[in-house]
Amino acid sequence: MSAPPPLCIPLPTPNLNSTYGAMLIGVLFSTFLQGVLTLQTVTYYDSYPKDPISTKLVVATVWCFDTFHLILIAQSAYHYLISNWGFLPALLESTWELDLNVTFIGLSTFACQLFFLKRIWVFSGRNWIMVGVLAALCCVTLVVDIIVTVQILEHRSVAEFGVQKTGILVAFISGAVADVTIASLLTFYIRRNRSGFEKTDSLITLIVRYTVTTGVVTSLLGIFTLVAYFLSPDGLTFIAMHFCLGRLYTNALLATLNSRSKLRATLEGTSNVQFDSSRKKDNSTNLSMSIPLSNFSSAPGMTDTQPSTVNVQVHKATEVLQDQYIYNQKRSLEENAIRVVGV
């Protein structure tokens, strides 16, 4: 009598919609954001050839980080959806490319945060304590990202992403706190440059809104990613959202740098018009007076044929100088406001 065939226990089939389907959508959105980032990078190098070499290196570094990250997540999607399509054991194993993507997102985010921290350091009068605390908070996020990556690499399981709750929670919370704090401090130093001029203050208000929006968008995506993680830790929806987080930082950085030309064009247009109109007004109002010489004793050798009065014309140069001083102060405040978010 032949032995009965061995029992085959079917492997659990994951829900592809909330796992690898969500991953595919995340890769597509990341590809779109990478295209926008590349366009902004080309625009930056073309428009600001005289920027400091340190700023150019930051731009090149974050672009390289994001490009390599896109290669990692695209290869992961190809591995699960093409190379191992229908092979269930492969869907349960994590690849080293998928594991490393967490670290590269952390590196891009950290580089962008350091750039804005440098601006805060300059405009806070080199406040080492404040900048040091913020830098430590940003370092915590990066270190936790690296630790989570190492732990997932050791287990090589997709389910490990749902196990690292403490590390992921710390990383997202510290990152969100750092983003909100950096945006708030930048807003404070920008608003401190208000001059009382209506158009100048309108320009500063525009910069404030842009700065706040940048910090809020990255913070909100981090919070939504954290919510998606706790709602579905076994799915990959939170990973798909996390794919895009680093590129929001880098696109915000490039948008900040590239917006300087438009802001300075607005600055030039409003400032020149205001000063020219005030200068014309001052030049049109000169002071003239006549001084009779009869009020003074005759000097030796003075004859009767000499004029009896002397006409004196006094230009109101003092007011012009005052307007020039106000104009220079106004321009200085506007430039400082732009430099807070740029260089």
UniProtKB/TrEMBL annotation:
Keywords associated with the record: Membrane, Transmembrane, Transmembrane helix
One Pfam family recorded for the sequence: DUF6534
Residue stretches spanning the membrane: 20-45, 57-78, 98-116, 128-148, 168-190, 210-231, 237-257
Domain DUF6534 residue range list: 176-261
Recorded superkingdom: Eukaryota
Name of the featured protein: DUF6534 domain-containing protein
